[in-house]
Amino acid sequence: MKTGFLGMKLALLFVLGLAPSGRSASPEYFVPAHRVSGIGIARDDVSQDLLDVRTDHMVQSQTFSIMREAQALPGARRITANSKLQALFRTASERSGIPASLIEAISYLESWGDPKAESPAGPRGIMQISHATAASMGLRVVYATRNKTTREKVPVKSKKTGKTTYRTVTRKTPYKVMVRDDRMSPDRAIPAAAKYLAGMEQKYGGRDWAIFAYHCGQGCVNMMQDLTRRARGISQDQVTVPRMFFSSSPAWNRELYEAIQQQMQRDYSPTYWFRVQRAEQLLALYRRNPAEFASLAQEYKSQFVAAGRAPHRLAVWLKREDLVYHNDDDIRVDPSKKLARALDRPEYFGYMLKVAADDPANLEYFREAAPAAIGTLTYIAFETRRLFDETGHKGEKFKPLDVTSLVEPEEYGRLKNRPEVLSHSSGQVFDIDYSALPPAELECLRFVLNDLGWDGYLGFVEEGMDNLHIGCSPASRDFFTSVFHEAVGNKVKE
Predict the structure, then answer these.
(1) Which of 64, 178, 250, 317 is the most exposed place for a label (fewest CB within 10 A)?
(2) Is the dihedral of CA 201, 206, 207, 209 positive or negative?
(3) Rounded CA gap, 370 and 424, in Å?
(4) How many other CB atoms are found less than 10 A from the CB of residue 106?
């Protein structure tokens, strides 16, 4: 099992090794030889081997969403060390055929093993079961009607005298109170959830779809499975959740793509199966080596957030020691020679430099960044443009991406009074303003960012109005640096 950034790096190299030469592209713009397979437009040609690699990447990338939570470590301890819970998981597995490790992984994600967990959205208990699903599982959720009695004085006007007097009126207001909720009882909820999963596995023909149904609901899975069966490039014996997720784009299987996007905006349910797989692996790691698990949890804490979880991947990847450019002189001198000049040919490289500086004399220095950051920007522009070209939007021409920030000194960032700005003093991040992008191009940009993000290559976050704050993962910096050097070589040839 791969854990942390080392595992990401090994998986990254595997994908690069599988990368095909790619379809021919226009010589009018930069086309890197170093590629990540199956990204963007290349989703229309995903082999089973490549699907397996992308699935593993996706599973590993779920580490962030799990381990950044404060309950990740106590939840693992609570589930694995509770002998009663472990007995319930084993018995439920024996009766349903669903692995105990899978059942406990779902309880880990849903409640961190807390039988009293309650969601504001309605689900309750260790397995976080909704009221409607509880009924289909055979769990009882019983309410009783009670009456709240109140007394108040009301004015009464006499018909004879016309005088107003007061009398006390008793009112009874009915309300419901829960008198039994099997969802809050692990010895009822765990077997019921396991039985439900077994039923969904039989109904949908796969355990992956059963897990999807547990989070998304049967109506959602009925629709997604039907769209997957009708999608191009998917044989009937490959109708799986990973194949569904990695077989669409704005230019390929558009209907399936739009349905996935809708579900992602609702509750990220298309990623739930991947997350459950990672939860299984993490619980196995905790059993095998609690200290290593604790170390991994520490790795996913942000040094910039005093309390609570890391807001995004960049807050985990960047460390305080990375913020080395404290003032303008630090950038001018660049003692470690970590910065490089951004390539400034908008039509060729697909991005336009619109950076600002605190002083016009510093502008040339603010047009620099780490080679990995420039390579990441160049690669994003490449994948966005070729996906946009493939969508075939008539009358729309690709607009180079507006880059508004590269490296900036810490003191300049503090003047802006925005939380993400200080990370620019690392030289590892950049900002793209998407306010002027055509809608179709913006859709392609977001898709490429998500595609690379799901595989752990980069992180990004909305920052301010119409602005994306982007940086690559530490494990992928060598790859994107190679893209940068390749781009520099192409520029020299030109």
Answers:
(1) 178
(2) negative
(3) 10
(4) 25
Burial 52-90 (b: 16+ CB within 10 A, else e): ebbbbbbbbbbbbbbbbbebbbebbbbbbeeeebeebbe
Chain mean pLDDT for the chain: 90
Q: Return the C-alpha torsion angle 307, 312, 317, 321, nearest 10.
A: -50
Buried b (16+ CB within 10 A) or exposed e, 458-477: bbbbebeeebbbbbbbbbbb
Q: How far is CA 128 from CA 106, 266, 296, 397, in A?
A: 9, 17, 26, 48
Two tokens, residue 463:
């920052």
In the chain, what is the greatest distance between 2 CA atoms, to the nearest angstrom?
107
> In angstroms, rounded to a whole number, what is the distance separating the alpha carbons of residues 297 and 304?
16
| Residues 356-384 pLDDT 10s | 888 889 999 999 999 999 999 999 999 99
For the chain, helix (H) and strand (E) counts, in that order, are 22, 9
For the chain, what is the radius of gyration of the CA atoms? Answer: 28
**How far is Cα 427 from Cα 413, in angstroms, rounded to an integer?**
12
The owner of tokens 């790859």 is: 479
Q: Which uninterrupted H or E stretch holds 275?
A: helix 272-288
pLDDT tens-digit map of 59-102: 999 999 999 999 999 999 999 999 999 999 999 999 999 999 99
Q: Which residues contact 77 (CB under 8 A, 6 or more apart)?
A: 286, 290
Smallest CA-to-CA distance from 108 within 277, 326, 242, 316 is with 277
Query: For the chain, how many residues are written?
Result: 494
Q: Return the DSSP state at 341.
A: E
This prediction's pTM: 0.88
Q: What is the pLDDT of residues 178-218, one digit of tens each?
A: 778 899 999 999 999 999 999 999 999 999 999 999 999 99
288 CB burial (10 A radius; 0-12, 13-18, 19+):
exposed
